[in-house]
Amino acid sequence: MSENDYGNDDSGASASSSHPAKRPPKQSRTGLKSTGVRKAASKSARSRAREFALQALYQHLVGGNAPEAIDAFTRDLAGFHKADSVHYDALLHGSIQMAADMDALITPLLDRKMAEISPIEHAVMWIGVYEFQHCLDVPWRVVLNECIELAKEFGGTDGHKYVNAVLNGLAPRLRAAEVAADKASGASAAAATPADDGAQA
Fold first, then answer.
1. pLDDT of residue 107 exceeding 50
2. What pLDDT digit, counting tens, does each position of 24-39 carry?
3. How far apart are the first and last CA of the chain?
4. What does the pLDDT average to over 65-93?
5. What mean pLDDT do residues 52-66 have?
6. 88 near 51, Cβ under 8 Å?
7. What's the rounded Cα separation, in Å, for the pair 66 and 48?
8. In angstroms, rounded to a whole number, what is the distance separating the alpha carbons of residues 6 and 1?
């Protein structure tokens, strides 16, 4: 996938001349809701935080922009007030600070070089790994499902399958006890819903 495959979010924000990384229109998809993903009204504040963090991390990966400049721009986008700003802040700055360590975890599960991974999928994986490691209040299956949703909305056609495979591979290592308990109880991934993800918008 090229850098130009990046899609718009549901916040209604449009790219401006001051935007470090312009975003083309969202791709259309079949077999999903009219928006291609779950409706914006059903998204929790944390789901929205992940979307804005993804946009910010994309700018960091593609343009190498300073985190402070990216942060300031992103917080000024339409719809940001509906996001969990604390969670957004943790995802953005935590992912950038822990990037090397997270890439070291991700790389062994890739079937290609990291440089060949779409910056969207790369950023989504960062979000997933960061939440696995540092957001223990979010069930691992919710982290996985939220990252799959991000990849479906913003990534390439099959990007979500790649994200799913990598994060599913890391979950038993990063959330060992939780994953083992789920397997023992026969829990299914479908049991995890956005409602498990904290305060609703």
1. yes
2. 444 444 334 544 555 5
3. 31
4. 95
5. 95
6. no
7. 22
8. 9
Q: Is 198 helix (H, G, I), strand (E, B) or coil?
A: coil
- pTM of the complete model: 0.75
Q: Which residue has the tokens 């259309």?
A: 28
Torsion of CA 144, 55, 118, 169, to 10 degrees: -20
Q: Give the chain's count of helices (H) and strands (E).
A: 8, 0
Neighbours of 136 (CB within 10 A): 11
**What DSSP string describes 36-94?**
SSS-GGG-BHHHHHHHHHHHHHHHHHHH---HHHHHHHHHTSTTGGGS-HHHHHHHHHH
Structure tokens at 96: 């950038």
Q: What distance in Å separates the CA atoms of residue 111 and residue 159, rounded to the nearest whole number?
A: 13
The candidate with the shortest Cα–Cα distance to 11, out of 77, 56, 84, is 77
